[in-house]
Write a structure and sequence with these properties.
The protein is an alpha/beta fold. 32% of the residues lie in helices and 23% in strands. Mean pLDDT is 96; it is low at 1-5. The structure holds ligand JHZ and zinc ion. Ligand JHZ is lined by residues 83, 87-88, 182, 229, 259, 327-331, 351-353, 356, 386, 388-389, 392-393, 396.
């Protein structure tokens, strides 16, 4: 799909985002929901919010799981985007290890060039800068891009497209490494983005791409990771086809625990498919992840989880408990809006990201405060919306827990810890 046609606020896709096939079948419907990262200011809360259909479908031709609504990316990402990667020490550690591994394995030096697409606040590229390696960050969100510049990461504030790749190539830029973490699923022009990567890589370069994996999403009922920013939910089967269409080869794959279960993909211009990819393709075929049957009962599981969580919160509340939430995460917006968790159940949400403070969660409009509020108020329970960082957050909240506070984990089944 061509982004330039996107004058409208959103468009409903009739064909597959990847292969263009018409055989897409919906298997999960959330109705219309607000935008997950569109946090509200106190002046916004007197206004109605834009809501868009959120519907998940499977492509019978290329196996790609995708949502059918494309919200204009300018609305989603360019304006006041509140997500800053550097607020999670675990993510910083994970990113640094990735950079050091590649510097080592690829023998990168001052002549090398590393480009990151959706470089956010420079959380990853700063590790290469520190090692004296040339970098370029590309990110359309002005706040995070300015933060990256402040830590010494040269950043171009733009959407990455095939055209931008051509421009950079014409200026003599070819990359040894192209990073693209948590962005492939976000771009409306999936094919243009991948074609752009192919144009940007040196002949012996490698694209190192991270994306949440569809299997744990289904197996652990991580339905809250579905929102309008996430257009695709990838399997290795679907990715392999996508890359091949653009003369790129998925040669190696690793499983990562980050974000509830992700894939790290090593993609090159030369075909050299290793055992990790072959095994993964065979595994997906044997588990049926390449067919619609695997996804058919997901909606029933999601409904059961939503009901159980709602019952649990309602019971605690009726017993007189006070409840707050942790993490003004995008996935938290899906959870509270699809389950219906409003101010009657949860008093406030805390988050370490200062850019989110004094704002309100979309839809349910829960106020967002700093994490200190947990010790000040000492609510009986805290619903962990950022459940993907559970270990880190429990460590950090040792004092709240020592004073008797308890966390509620929403997925894979609601439980109190
Ligand atoms: P977090 C993000 O989604 C953004 P989100 C994006 N949509 C994407 O694709 C996925 O990641 C993969 C806070 N926090 O990262 C920070 C603390 O307060 O799970 C965040 O606001 N204290 C591009 O937004 C939120 O929680 C902490 O100790 O769903 C976590 O959001 C930690 C670790 C986090 O993802
Ligand atoms: Zn398809």
């Amino acid at each position: 799909m061509d982004m330039m046609c996107l004058d409208a606020k959103s468009v409903t896709e009739r064909a597959c985002r990847s292969c263009g096939g018409s055989g897409i079948e919906t298997f999960l419907e959330f109705g219309k929901t607000p935008l997950a990262d569109r946090l509200l200011t106190s002046s916004d809360i007197s206004e109605p919010e834009p809501i868009f259909p959120l519907r998940v479908a499977f492509c019978k031709d290329c196996s790609l799981v995708q949502i059918t609504e494309t919200v204009n990316p300018i609305i989603l990402f360019a304006d006041s985007y509140p997500y800053y990667s550097s607020f999670s020490p675990a993510l910083l550690k994970h990113s640094r290890a990735n950079a050091l591994d590649l510097i080592n394995r690829r023998g990168l030096g001052p002549e090398s060039l590393v480009i990151e697409l959706a470089s956010n606040d420079g959380y990853l590229l700063k590790n290469y800068v520190e090692a004296g390696i040339r970098v370029l960050g590309i990110d359309p969100a002005d706040g995070p891009a300015a933060a990256a510049e402040r830590v010494g990461v040269p950043t171009r504030c733009a959407f990455f497209t095939r055209d931008l790749a051509e421009t950079l190539r014409a200026q003599g830029m070819r990359a040894d490494i192209v990073h693209a973490n948590n962005v492939l699923a976000h771009v409306a022009d999936t094919n243009g983005f991948v074609a752009g990567i192919a144009r940007l890589l040196k002949d012996d370069g490698v694209a190192v791409i991270e994306a949440p994996y569809v299997e744990p999403l289904i197996e652990h009922c991580e339905f809250d990771t579905i929102y309008h920013e996430h257009l695709c939910y990838f399997s290795v089967t679907a990715l392999d086809k996508l890359f091949r269409r653009h003369g790129l080869y998925l040669n190696e794959v690793k499983h990562l625990s980050i974000h509830g279960g992700s894939l790290r993909l090593y993609v090159e211009t030369r075909e050299n498919v290793g055992a990790t990819v072959q095994e993964q393709l065979a595994r997906e075929a044997s588990r049926g992840i390449d067919a619609i049957g695997y996804f058919r009962d997901f909606s029933t599981k999601v409904d059961a989880l939503k009901r159980d969580l709602s019952t649990l919160l309602g019971r605690l509340k009726s017993q007189g408990a006070t409840i707050a939430a942790y993490g003004a995460a995008a996935k938290g917006a899906t959870l509270i809006n699809t389950v219906g968790i409003g101010c009657d159940l949860v008093d406030f949400v805390v988050d370490r990201n200062v850019h989110k403070h004094n704002k309100y969660m979309p839809g349910q409009r829960l106020p967002i405060r700093s994490t200190e509020a947990l010790l000040e108020v000492q609510p009986d329970y805290v619903l962990l919306l950022a459940w993907n960082f559970v270990d880190e957050i429990l460590d950090q909240q040792a004092e709240y827990r020592a004073r008797g506070g308890k966390f509620i984990l929403p997925v894979p089944t609601p439980r109190i810890i």
